[in-house]
Amino acid sequence: MKMNRRNVVKAGLAGASVLAMPYVARSAMGTVRIGLITPLSGGGELYGNYIKSGAEIAAERLMKQGALGGAKIELVIRDDKGTPDGALTAFREITGDGVKLIAQGLFTSGLLATLPLLKEVDGTLVMVGPGSLPVTHEAFTPHAFRMGYTAPTFGGGQGALMAKKHPEANKWAFIRTDLSSVEDISGYFRLRLKEEAEKAGRSVELMDEILVPYKTADFRNQASQIAGSGADALFTTIQGADNITFYKQARGFNLDQRIGLMCDSGNELAIARAMGKTTPKSLWSWTGWYPYADPDNTASIEAVTMYKERTGEEYPSGFFGFAHDSILSLVDGLEKAGSTDSAKMIPAIESSTPTGCLGKISYRPEDHTFAGLLTFIRFGADESDPKGWKVFEVEHLNGADYLEPPTPGKKFER
Amino acid sequence: MNPAIKATLLVLSALVLLALPLWVNPGLLHLVGVTIVMGVFAVAWNLLFGYAGLASFGSGGLFSIGAYFMAVMLRAGWQDGFLLLILVSMAAGGLVAFLVGAIALRRSSGIYLAILTLALSEVLRLFLMRWHWIGAEDGLPNIVRPSFSIGIARVDLSNGHSYYWFLCLACAAMVAIMWWILHSPLGRTLRAIRLDPERTAFMGVNVYGYKLAAFTLSGIFAAGAGALYAPWAQIVTPDLGNMTRSVQPILYTLLGGASSFWGPLIGAFSFSAIEYATRTLVGIQEIITGAILLVIILVFPTGIAGAFSRFVGALMPSEPSSRHGSSVASAVRTETP
Questions:
Q1: Of the listed ranges A261-270, A382-391, B101-110, the one predicted with least confidence
Q2: Can you tell me the ipTM of this complex?
């Protein structure tokens, strides 16, 4: 090409238009609509409300920061009632209205219903908080990203952490709900605990798991069995409200006095909030998000401050953090992609690592599973605190070190 | 109600349903599809309650048998036999209902029968939750909408709205068969049993046999509804057989009117319409839905269908069939268990 005036002007205009493209796209965005599908009634309502708050506060924060060239971020919120039917109706409705960016959680069945439809609607979805394996294994779709941890990751991580931090615990008791969804949590805890202890040249005795049916109201026999077992550590994987009943009844057997080290799989501060000053004296738990874990994380501190101003509650559940970071992932991806087309959104999310409530957000490229930090907290009863309980210590592990191997499109076998 | 008015309403409803894919949002269309299936399921339940006087709280179990059977077979690639699969699903539901009914109806009635059927349904749900081969708690996703041959042509239900239209036709066929059964001597005998079983037995009717037939028929159509549901939702989970699912046909029947054959269908559509209209009122949706249902059930004890019949009867007082309908409705209101 000749270097004449006309060609220089042409090249200059072409270059300027390429550079300006994302900004043109942003100003054309005006309002960006993001769908949020979560249970706001029925059994998952409690968690769904945290998800809704997390998403709303994320949208508010991002708009304040002038994300997407100052575009308005509108959340289209729909209640999936915790059922696949509800999720499908909501998904089809919002995608039928042209929404292509979606955050959805938390029940696996709802996600399994909508994941196969993403390609058809050219959508990009961030899954809020699911822990089950199929969504990034046999049901994997490149259109979806998991903002949550799988059982092998947090269960295995906790096992490894306990082996490192508590070499004095040599005999472990286990109690868990008889549901296949929690089998892996306990299974991977045992596996990594043993591996880590053996690495350190120790051997640990792992007692057989005590299985309890879901929705049990009487744990006295099991608590008595554990108290008399001679175990010096306990790992509890009991679901939902059953968990509170277990710890309440365990008080009658002084379990927290007799067992030196008590660990819970992930009910974290829900236990303290429910039990107040009767919380066990010391309990380790994995948490999806502990807002005060890193005082330098402005996203986390700002989000929890806004939540506290709104509700008066100081310790929202981890689902709040997952939802916040799900919206952040989508908005950050859109900012980089400049378009809601999934062909542009997917690589943008894959390559970007924004900092959210949970720290640096990154997804494993092979199966889009979350590969962020794992957080564990030790908390317990504390008379000096007006709440009656306190968080004593926080530990982090690199989640990527504990991810199960990727098998996109295939079932993962332990 | 005047048969001409009834026929006009039916034709209009059918035309509106068939034309829906051309103008409604896909979300609403999905909900309508689910509602059609649930309406058929509710009519099947009312075959027991409104006609034979039997209350089952475990119909969700029969629904899930049909749904799971269809899901497993379609995922295994048996698309070509889709029509046959529907019939086999119905036969499976009927067989289970027959076996349960054969024992339960000898030993229990009234509330005991209701609790027994609920317990059996829960056992089935727990079994499904623990069976890994059929997905355990996560259920079976990715159920394909079939494409099959009918000899002279190939029917492809996987594209566009074709499965919706098939669903409409298949449900219409099931409703038509149930209507025919319930307006036959069998239906009239069942009504007689519900109103006075001792007197009917005295007249030489095998009351147990007829009740068992009603139980089996209800199971056949509940499983048939489940079989049609699986490819529509494209996922089945153990929750299909939970208590909420079993209570849905009861709610639809009470809302629409147990005394009318069409009552459960009207109830299903009314409930879905209320839910859809209030879907954006997060947090107060349940309160509004509950309040509306309460008002309808308290103000119209014979349900929406009964109220509508009375309304039409009042507009056309000389219409003999409306007087008859009204007396039947009041009889049902006082006698329905």
A1: B101-110
A2: 0.79
